[in-house]
User: Fold this.
Amino acid sequence: MNAGDVVTAVLLPAGAVFSALGALGALRFPDLLTRLHAATKPQTIGLLLILAGVAPQTGSVSAATPLILVAFFQLLTAPVTAQTIAGAAYRAGVIDRTTLTVDDTDQGT
Assistant:
């Protein structure tokens, strides 16, 4: 067993756990904002850990390049999507504004 196998053996299950906990949170959390948090942060970390676990098994940098692109686009799109959905829900009045700790929009109260 080489070092790449050890890295893979650690990172793949860790990524799976993060992804599973994110999915569980998306199902169990009570409101839209906390569900968005669960759907973006742990899922993104889980995917990055899985990609980092797969990378040592590819054997070359050119074979790992698509993994880097997937990670880049995940980091780019997940936060933007969550922000867009949350902003639309806020403007539509779906979010209970009394539960917000900080409201930087100057709307509401």
Remarks:
- The chain has a mean pLDDT of 90.
- DSSP finds three helices and no strands in the chain.
- Helices lie at 3-28, 32-58, 61-92.
